[in-house]
């Protein structure tokens, strides 16, 4: 769709093995989409046709369009695998109002975590007809991934600690690079779109020497900007920021410590990493238009007709962990919940486990109502569209949700090791 008009967007996509040099003299075998982590850009109203080929020699895969309003049979569910060497065309329409920072990743049964930590992930930006964010702010993507390299340059398999806590790597990469440099002019404002594409790393972020304003979440823009001191981005979450580089630089995007309920020894160092450095030139930026006070309207979802409760738990079974929702581990041949299409429901996610679990639902966006912990209820501070919400250990999160399309949808913890180990359920929308 080069013309800028609403129309047909066609692309080829292949998942294939590749060799990358992260460390001098060492070859690392990875899996990539079209040789990298592509950014697909389309517009509201477009029809999307993606011709996908699974070039992974020995495993099935799927392409899941995370957060997008895609028909269930086109959404890369584990129930619709693409065999090694096989192809599949994914077709879907992007409705009006769907502009948001989405992403895509594999979702094959039992191999999701592995294919993602080996490198398979991409961005899918849906742009609106008219964008309220000034074009002068640019549009900068920051995709976080998490790399672990063995001494010989290979990517080691998951061990027991990885399966328990989710795999946390040794190097957080931004668009495939460690601590890349962003060149900005003094006084410049930038629109940054952040994607947590790691398997299991919680990113508690801070921008030293710059000010952050939150303008959007998983499902697109907020109604109004919200000033932030820091931002917690759980696995699979996205955020859109406007960052003002109004102080003498450099400005650094750094991490703060976060207690996510690490189990066992070896909690990885999470604080004090510099993920991105903005070098600020002395020459002042051209005058920047102000960020509008109102970004868009988000209609509140109406009162729910029904509520549903999901209890997250983990338990030791022998030498390994079991991760469950409502006491059951995922079974592809079992429907866990049946929901009526078009109904608004209140979902209550109760985390009875010792660690945080970011909860995700396919096929739609929801509106968080409130959080409850130790008997204390906190209302959501602003309305937003989300497809993934972190549920802190001991916390209950309530959100309003509606599914507009029929078919089977997954809901799961987005620590991908937990998802592979069973913290996932199947929702049938009728
Ligand atoms: Cu990114 Cu089933 O999800
Ligand atoms: Cu998803
Ligand atoms: Cu989890």
Textual characterization of the structure:
The chain has 430 residues and is mainly beta. The protein has 3 domains: 8-127, Sandwich (Immunoglobulin-like), CATH 2.60.40.420; 135-284, Immunoglobulin-like, CATH 2.60.40; 306-429, Immunoglobulin-like, CATH 2.60.40. Helices cover 4% and strands 46% of the residues. It is built from 3 helices and 30 strands. The chain has helices spanning 112-117, 160-165, 416-420; strands spanning 8-20, 28-33, 39-43, 47-54, 64-66, 87-93, 100-105, 122-127, 140-147, 171-174, 181-186, 189-196, 203-208, 211-217, 220-228, 231-233, 238-244, 251-256, 274-284, 306-317, 320-325, 337-339, 344-351, 357-361, 367-373, 376-379, 388-391, 395-402, 407-413, 424-429. The strands form 6 sheets. It has a 6-stranded mixed beta sheet, with no helix packed on it. A 6-stranded mixed beta sheet has the order 21-20-23-28-25-26. The model has no long low-confidence stretch (mean pLDDT 96).
